[in-house]
Design goal:
Blueprint lengths: L3 E2 L2 E2 L9 H4 L8 E6 L3 H5 L9 H10 L8 H8 L2 E6 L6 H17 L3 E6 L4 H10 L5 E6 L18 H6 L6 E9 L6 H9 L3 E4 L5 H9 L7 E6 L21 H13 L3 E7 L10 H24 L13
Parallel strand pairs: 3-4, 3-5, 5-10, 6-7, 6-9, 7-8, 9-10
Antiparallel strand pairs: 1-2
Helix pairs in contact: 3-11, 4-11, 5-6, 9-10, 10-11
């Protein structure tokens, strides 16, 4: 028998090693995946509908991937303690479904599992946030996005452009901070920046984002008791992410994006993430869904390494790549 970590054997490089076969509800789960198949908020916000079918597309791409061979044992160990609870059945009542999403996520976050939510439009994030608000648990918010998403409600209803306004104004007042990184000046309103500033938030323009600055944003989260990180695929350049609700010219590179995803997993303060705004209806060859899946893969890889450090375990590397 090949060497194991916590009973997780090395598997041969075959279909049996694919993540789709590895995901099992370990007891207790160390990570949890949840889908939120909704794009009502995108439609209210004037975006291109289609994000409701994203969770399935992301899962298909994720399931075909392999654990990182450089840290196989620790990555596989996390995957074998990852519970995919499937998609939350939506009713068409966005506010109601967001409340239900928060209630579904809350016990997993409370139990210390690393929670990954597959959207859906960016309205997903407000339901995600409610998992903290319902418990009155303070949380820092970090949003990787081309847009600040603090727009006013439409007829008193939330949408894909309003989740962080709703979070910052929530009566629980648990949103301790808000940072949005990757903003594109040609789609950002000055009024929205003033709103963020008035609520103690910060923003970083896409043109100033470097790998070092990405790392600094996560370092700033370390003192936080909890942090929610949102990954809006429209922050990535449309050449790499054409299948989104609102494509972006001159968006983030995949290098910066995936580093941000990896560090979200590796940073202990980050308790949950979501990946939103993938629109399979406008994708090209499934490349945006694969990038979203690689975002999840990178975050889980980071969390696997964070867990390994906690357990004082060092996995051998095969290629020296072990950040």
């Amino acid at each position: 028998m090949a060497r194991t970590l916590s009973g997780v054997p090395h598997r041969p490089d075959s279909l049996g090693a694919r993540i789709g076969a590895a995901l099992t509800p370990g007891d207790p789960p160390r990570a949890v995946l949840v889908g939120f198949p909704c794009d009502i908020g995108v439609q209210r916000n004037g975006g291109r509908p289609g994000a409701a079918s994203a969770p399935d597309a992301i899962r298909q791409a994720l399931h075909s991937m392999l654990p990182d061979p450089a840290i196989y044992d620790v990555h596989a160990a996390l995957l074998e303690h990852t519970l995919d609870v499937g998609d939350l059945p939506t009713t068409g009542d966005l506010a109601h479904d967001q409340l239900r999403l928060g209630r579904l996520l809350q016990p997993h976050i409370d139990a210390g599992a690393f929670v990954v939510v597959l959207g859906g439009g960016h309205e997903t994030t407000y339901g995600h946030f409610l998992a903290y608000a319902n418990e009155r648990r303070p949380v820092s918010l970090l949003n990787w996005d081309a847009h600040p998403d603090v727009r006013e409600l439409v007829d008193d209803q939330g949408h894909s452009g309003s989740p962080f306004r709703q979070a910052l104004l929530h009566p629980s007042q648990v949103a301790e901070s808000y940072t949005v990184a990757g903003l594109q000046p040609y789609v950002v309103s000055r009024d929205h920046l003033q709103f963020i500033a008035a609520h103690g938030g910060t923003w970083i323009w896409r043109q100033t984002l470097t790998l070092d600055r990405v790392a600094a944003l996560y370092d700033a989260l370390q003192p936080a008791s909890a942090a929610l990180v949102s990954f809006d695929l429209d922050a990535v350049d449309q050449s790499s992410a054409p299948g989104v609700s609102a494509p972006t010219v001159d968006g983030l590179t995949t290098e910066v994006w995936l580093r941000a995803a990896f560090l979200a997993g590796r940073t202990p303060a980050v308790t949950s993430i979501d990946v939103v705004e993938v629109n399979p209806r406008f994708d090209v060859g499934g490349q945006t869904a694969r990038l979203a899946a690689l975002t999840v893969w990178s975050a889980l890889r980071g969390r696997a390494l964070a867990d390994a450090r906690t357990r004082n375990y060092r996995s051998p590397t095969t290629n020296g790549w072990n950040p």
